[in-house]
From TrEMBL:
Source organism of the structure: Paenibacillus gallinarum
Superkingdom as given in the UniProt entry: Bacteria
Protein name (database record): Lipoprotein
């Protein structure tokens, strides 16, 4: 009987620990919370996103960021990469999208890999 109680206790602990694990968010996630707008700037053109749903969908994608080593296109000074870079200026943090699902955080200088679907929000007319 003790054996079954011990096994049940271990099983309960495993289930609780698996359920309590939450997805780890990038450090900039807190700075995005509560944002009511974001300025998207590419070269000479810019636009501001203020639509709640569009902004919310964009933040969901950015919060999926996983820290990575600096990508190849970020090594050294690359004019082609700089020309394609897109600034995302939120009230509390700046993020720079350099393409191929890579973003640079202005908070800590870390690169993050995010879904390339973010490009749908970075179009400037």
């Amino acid at each position: 009987m003790k054996k079954y109680g011990l096994m049940l206790g271990v099983l309960l602990i495993l289930i609780l620990s698996a359920c309590s694990q939450k997805e780890e968010l990038p450090p900039y996630a807190d700075s995005l919370t509560g944002s009511s707008e974001v300025l998207i700037r590419k070269e000479e053109a810019s636009r501001t996103i203020t639509d709640e749903q569009e902004l919310s969908d964009m933040i969901v994608l950015l919060n999926q960021g996983k820290a990575i080593e600096p990508p190849e296109e970020a090594q050294g000074i690359n004019p082609a990469t700089a020309k394609e870079a897109v600034l995302m200026h939120f009230p509390k943090v700046d993020l720079v999208y350099i393409g191929d699902g890579h973003v640079l955080s202005g908070l800590d200088g870390t690169y993050y890999e995010i879904p390339e679907d973010i490009e749908d929000y970075l179009k400037v007319k």
